[in-house]
């Protein structure tokens, strides 16, 4: 039920935290954070824009060329007009074509991997619900991995036994107590902590604020002077290497350690495996090239003397290397965190309070101690006796799969074959902004026989679909969420604020109805006979059982739901003293890691056995194809970091855009040197291009970025102008990025290894139309 009282704000939550939303019962009036915080999170103000945006999908729509002959669609996806159809017609069309394709081509022809940051909540999980329906219908092709940590999450288990990127970090109180030096290496927590996969617990920035006032030595290694460096001001040093060269920089530091006998031999002997082989590479004994500071300096663009100073500083102090993820979203991205861990191992501080490395302080408030908690259960992606994914493709290889059906490829030591995908359904992801090389994607996108998109908004993906289904935002339905992916700090009701807009339906209801169309009794199988509130009560009841084991008692569900209040979980003294790898450090034999040797693998026999030239068996410097070392004069390194006032592409249409748009489009950060060389002034429209595509963006000229590097944050909506050479008017960075795997080990996203050209734009004035729905909508 929509809340009809106008006086009391409704409590709900998004990835960007618990929020209070004011409504008059029909319209959303305003929204704000529900937790007390000294750091305003701009995303929390955007609920009215989300619910009432002119770019909402209002009705089911179908592409003309598809409707003309659904068995054999005509026209070009992305160039066709859309026609309004009824829900009944839309679901009938989907059911008929789904049946036809499944019968003729089998379950692997149906791609339901549907990656993306759908709204949070334990029940209305778009892709999970899609997969649940496809499990009922007989299986599908899913995906493995993610765009976030594609390389790191595959390499780290070989090295440390766990993925490290989604695991709790040594607790913040201990970092503040014990660390002397903290290094943010390719991390921008001021931006990235605005969100979490559940809802943000909003504690992370507060911890970084304490760090700022701690008097510790703080260093940020990033080609761009990020919001975080600005936030730390004088208390942080900024070192700006060339993009993609961090392994060389780390090797230079490591070599300096060895030269001075500053490395921790005892730790290396007791806790690591294969160091000697790596050491031969480091010193050049095996290949004749000593990876010393003088070698590293011209590669990474950091002076030799600085590299040597870092080695001394790190080895003589309790040092914590906080690794972010931008640097592994690159060709050979696997090497980055492997080398970071190797460097930390050489420093010998892994497993100490406040020393070693951590790969999630910048994400989901890692290090904020885990509470004793009643943790919610959540919706599962398969029905009883259903068929789960019959096949999985590495998530960022989707275009390669469409281009090369049946083609063989290597993944993580396995020889695999791409399925022959004929039907793609995306629910809860924005693959036309998240995937690399948009123009190549658009070509590959013509291949499937059917593309269905479930969306709240007319995204570029929706504009390239055959059928577009209008879906509710999370403010038009009821749900539950925890805050903090690691802390479980709060349990929050996500109460419906207003009625569904237009003809929008919940993903759950769409797939429930399709299940019934698929087979008699399908709806009951899909829903297990439960509606929204019954499911929420189930998840809450399980939370109560889990909580009981932790000494946490929840009020009865009805009372909780009525109260419109979140529940804060009690602190745990034990968890507040958590030190990652403490037990292993104390007794490596008794508490081995789950690696083959039980130790930190600096050399991996398993990886050696795969024989991958693009992922050697110990951390190595391999020059990417596109980097400053291969750039022609005038070419620039392209950075696509995550945006401050969006979650990827989410909210690009919102009023927040006024805070960052330049010349009406996505801002592009460039150094004054690069601006002068091209006659570009602050605020100008620039054209940026390479052989993959071209975009227009608004120039932000600042010394806060390394010369030779430009940044376009990821997530601007593609707005390709076919009448003007296909230029993207809104500055969508993936029009320019290269679509190659990090390596054949993990096949991760490598967007941050791309070169571009840039000039002042002198063409006709082109207005951004990305947020105008199709004329007929
Ligand atoms: N160049 C470059 N590219 C990148 C990155 C980069 O660093 N550089 N980063 C990569 C990373 S790490 C990621 S995680 C991806 C992010 O890629 P995505 O997660 O795909 O990006 P979002 O913009 O969050 O897309 C979520 C979509 O889900 C829709 N949605 C929200 N709620 C619901 C719902 O309840 N139901 C349905 N059906 N839809 C809903 C939203 O409207 C939105 O369009 O981008 C990747 N792409
Ligand atoms: N506000 C907001 N928060 C978010 C997101 C969002 O879209 N908006 N996205 C969320 C998601 S899904 C994810 S995966 C995380 C992403 O978290 P990250 O991947 O850590 O975020 P990025 O901004 O891609 O990269 C972090 C920093 O790495 C730097 N960097 C890039 N390349 C290099 C390099 O070669 N060397 C060095 N030293 N630094 C480099 C970038 O300049 C950037 O400042 O953030 C999450 N948080
Ligand atoms: Mo991500």
UniProtKB/TrEMBL annotation:
GO molecular function terms listed in the Swiss-Prot or TrEMBL record: electron transfer activity; molybdenum ion binding; molybdopterin cofactor binding; oxidoreductase activity
Residues of the Molybdopterin oxidoreductase domain: 56-517
InterPro entries associated with the record: Asp_de-COase-like_dom_sf, BisC, CT_DMSOR/BSOR/TMAOR, Molybdopterin_N, MoPterin_dinucl-bd_dom, Mopterin_OxRdtase, Mopterin_OxRdtase_prok_CS, Prok_Mopterin_Oxidored
Note on how the cofactor is bound: Binds 1 molybdenum-bis(molybdopterin guanine dinucleotide) (Mo-bis-MGD) cofactor per subunit.
Full protein name: Trimethylamine-N-oxide reductase TorA
Necessary cofactors: Mo-bis(molybdopterin guanine dinucleotide)
Pfam families in alphabetical order: Molybdopterin, Molybdopterin_N, Molydop_binding
Domain Molybdopterin oxidoreductase N-terminal: 12-52
BP GO annotations: anaerobic respiration
Keywords carried by this UniProt record: Metal-binding, Molybdenum, Oxidoreductase, Periplasm
Residues of the Molybdopterin dinucleotide-binding domain: 637-753
């Amino acid at each position: 039920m929509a809340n009809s009282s106008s006086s009391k704000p409704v409590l709900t939550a998004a990835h960007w935290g618990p929020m209070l939303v004011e409504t008059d019962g029909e319209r959303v009036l305003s929204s704000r954070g529900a937790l007390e915080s000294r750091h305003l999170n701009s995303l929390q103000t955007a609920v009215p824009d989300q619910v009432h945006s002119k770019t909402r999908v209002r009705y089911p729509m179908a592409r003309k060329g598809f409707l003309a002959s659904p068995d054999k669609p005509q026209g070009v996806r992305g160039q066709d007009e859309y026609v309004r159809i009824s829900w009944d017609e839309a679901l009938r069309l989907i059911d008929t074509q789904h049946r036809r394709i499944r019968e003729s081509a089998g379950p692997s022809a149906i791609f339901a991997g549907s990656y993306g940051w759908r709204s949070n909540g334990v029940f209305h999980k778009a892709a999970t619900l899609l997969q649940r329906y496809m499990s009922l219908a007989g299986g599908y092709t899913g995906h493995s991995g993610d765009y976030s940590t594609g390389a790191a999450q595959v390499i780290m288990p070989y090295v440390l036994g766990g993925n490290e990127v989604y695991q709790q970090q040594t607790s913040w109180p201990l970092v503040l107590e014990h660390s002397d030096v903290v290094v943010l290496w390719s991390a921008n927590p001021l931006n990235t902590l605005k969100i979490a996969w559940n809802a943000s617990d909003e504690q992370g920035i507060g911890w970084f604020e304490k760090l700022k006032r701690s008097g510790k030595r703080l260093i940020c290694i990033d080609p761009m002077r990020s919001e975080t460096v600005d936030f730390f001001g004088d208390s942080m040093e900024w070192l700006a290497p060339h993009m993609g060269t961090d392994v060389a920089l780390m090797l230079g530091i490591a070599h300096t350690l060895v030269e001075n006998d500053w490395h921790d031999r005892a730790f290396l002997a007791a806790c690591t495996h294969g160091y000697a082989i790596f050491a031969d590479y480091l010193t050049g004994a095996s290949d004749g090239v000593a990876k010393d500071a003088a070698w590293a300096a011209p590669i990474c663009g950091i002076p030799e003397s600085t590299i040597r100073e870092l080695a001394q500083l790190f080895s003589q102090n309790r040092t914590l290397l906080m690794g972010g993820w931008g640097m592994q979203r690159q060709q050979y991205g696997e090497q980055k965190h492997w080398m970071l861990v190797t460097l930390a191992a050489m420093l010998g501080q892994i497993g100490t309070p406040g020393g070693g490395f951590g790969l999630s302080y910048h994400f989901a408030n890692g290090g904020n101690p885990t509470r004793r908690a009643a943790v919610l259960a959540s919706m599962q992606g398969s029905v009883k006796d259903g068929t789960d994914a019959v096949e999985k493709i590495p998530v960022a290889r989707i275009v390669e799969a469409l281009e090369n059906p049946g083609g063989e490829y290597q993944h993580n030591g396995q020889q695999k074959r791409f399925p022959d995908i004929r039907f793609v359904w995306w629910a809860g992801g924005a693959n036309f902004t998240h995937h690399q090389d948009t123009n190549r994607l658009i070509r590959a996108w013509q291949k499937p026989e059917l593309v269905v998109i479930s969306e709240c908004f007319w995204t570029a993906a929706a504009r390239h679909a055959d059928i577009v289904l209008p879906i509710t935002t999370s403010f038009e339905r009821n749900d539950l969420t925890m805050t903090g992916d690691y802390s479980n700090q709060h349990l929050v009701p996500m109460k419906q604020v207003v009625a569904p807009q237009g003809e929008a339906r919940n993903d759950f209801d769409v797939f429930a109805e399709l299940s019934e169309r698929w087979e008699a009794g399908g709806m009951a199988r899909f829903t297990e006979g439960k509606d929204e509130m019954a499911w929420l009560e189930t998840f809450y009841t399980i939370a109560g059982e889990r909580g009981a084991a932790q000494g946490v008692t929840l009020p009865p569900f009805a009372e909780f739901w009525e109260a419109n209040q979140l529940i804060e979980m009690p602190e745990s003294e034990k968890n507040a003293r958590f030190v990652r790898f403490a037990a292993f450090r104390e007794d490596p034999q008794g508490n081995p890691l789950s690696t083959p040797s039980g130790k930190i693998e600096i050399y991996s026999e398993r990886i050696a056995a795969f024989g991958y030239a693009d992922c050697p068996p110990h951390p190595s410097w391999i020059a990417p194809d596109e980097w400053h070392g291969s750039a022609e004069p005038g070419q620039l390194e392209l950075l696509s970091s995550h945006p401050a006032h969006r979650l990827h592409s989410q909210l690009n249409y919102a009023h927040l855009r006024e805070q960052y748009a330049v010349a009406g489009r996505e801002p592009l950060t460039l150094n004054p040197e690069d601006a002068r060389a091209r006659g570009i002034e602050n605020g100008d429209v620039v054209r940026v291009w390479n052989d993959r595509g071209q975009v227009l963006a608004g120039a932000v000229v600042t010394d806060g970025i390394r010369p030779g590097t430009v940044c376009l944050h990821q997530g601007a909506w593609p707005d390709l102008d076919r009448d003007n050479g296909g230029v993207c008017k809104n500055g969508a960075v993936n029009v320019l990025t290269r679509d190659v795997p990090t390596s054949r080990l993990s096949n991760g996203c490598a967007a941050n290894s791309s070169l571009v050209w840039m000039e002042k734009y002198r063409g006709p004035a082109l207005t951004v139309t990305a947020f105008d729905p199709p004329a007929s909508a």
